[in-house]
Amino acid sequence: MNLLWYDNPAVTWHAALPIGNGVLGGMVFGGPAADRIALNHENLWRGKTRTRTTQPVYEHLPRIRELFFQDRLVEAGEETVRYLSGKEPLVQPYQPAGDLTLYFAGHEIVSDYRRQLSLSDGVVEVGYVRHGTRFLRKYLASVEHGALAVRIEADAPASVSVRVHLDRIDDEECPCVPWHRGTRIGLSGRFIEGVCFGVEAQVVATGGKVRSGHGATLDVEQADAVTIYVRAGVGLEGEGEQRGRRDWGLWHDDLPEFEVVEHTHRAEHRALFDRVSLNLGQGEQEKPTGVRLAGLRAGNADPDLLATYFQYGRYLLMNSSRRCQQPANLQGVWNDLLRPPWNSDFHHDINIQMNYWPAEVTNLPECIAPLAQYLRRAIPEGRKAARDLYDCGGIWLPIQTDLWDRAVPDAPYWDVWTGAAAWLAQHLWWHYEYALDETFLREHAYPFMKEAAAFYEDYLVEDAKGRLVTVPSQSPENYFVGGTRPVSLCV
Q1: CB contact at 8 A, 92 and 47
Q2: Among candidate residues 116, 135, 155, the one with its CA nearest the CA of residue 9
Q3: Separation CA 226–CA 153 (nearest Å)
Q4: How far, in Å, CA of 208 to CA of 157, rounded?
Q5: pTM of the model
Q6: pLDDT in tens, 146-194
Q7: How far is residue 323 from each of residues 124, 235, 239, measured CA to CA in Å?
């Protein structure tokens, strides 16, 4: 059925429903009286260490290898960490852009509540009845129009009254300036290191009145329907002073009526989503998704829910890696914390690969483009790191990094790992295998694979038996008896 639905609003961020267009992400809570949509932009990262780089330390490598070949594994591992590993975490965290909150006075008690996400259409809906009037909200993230859209309707005229407010989590390192002008509100923020951003919302009311409130707030009274469009922008280089205290001018065009935006969005979304269907059998679709999950955990069969979970994976990749600049990070394009788990970064020792495993095999090749761009950008810094750390040609990529494409070890023990570029190259080869696009192979896949291979041509050394081996080496994030902890390094 490709539907997630619940009979209650989300209380936590993890229970909210995601929408995204690759660039922008939104998590919809769906509260009837206070509805929060947590907002993200793919390029909004902290940048305190964005210029970090490696220094030449490869002169220690021969001694380290000698210790490994003597089976002095703990001593060799400690020497490796002393000279080739990072000393402190430097990867920067992915950041929330803000919150769009909708307040509906008197909607605390409602009936017939339903919150749902149609994976097939990429649309979240929240519906309920209050005093005999049915209210319906729709939420989507349009790729074609580059905006998130919220539509609020009722089946009785002049029934929609809502306060629309933009703000952001308290952050002493990022002062924000709210503003309002006519039917637009906005929020401009600037981190202390200079990264700046803006979030803007445009409110379109059918009937009723629109009044400006305090800060980034608009009040709509007795409208027949209300549409809210949201856009965001990020300035990475030298734009903080110019854009720190005024709107970003993101509305350089007038969006069409919501019906047109919705129709265009559904068609574009389905053009990708409908390429694959999966039928594993019947399930309990009449029950809320949370109830079905509880039943599954208790041992009840629900094959349709498993098929929905499969499609949910495709949905998340589509919505966080399409017609954008950055690949999907640890949380796709969604995050509401200043310090998210593992910085919500790009983890190269399987996590980013796991994001993209569905791309080719479930017919979403368009989603690979941001990953391919990311790998092309990584080459210059990867070359420098390969030479500085190991005196090798080709490229070395770190176990984890961020928006700034830096190739620097910054997690002692874990970061002594050379497999990132080779593992990531597999996705470029798969893309060629499925599409047989020789232009892609020639211009993107082969040059990256050649860089990864060139590194190993220099990195491989002979052991006592004449075998070519990698040293130091590790099975990512694992340890063994007799090795260093928490990660064991070896031949």
Answers
A1: yes
A2: 116
A3: 7
A4: 10
A5: 0.96
A6: 999 999 999 999 999 999 999 999 999 999 999 999 999 999 999 999 9
A7: 21, 19, 24
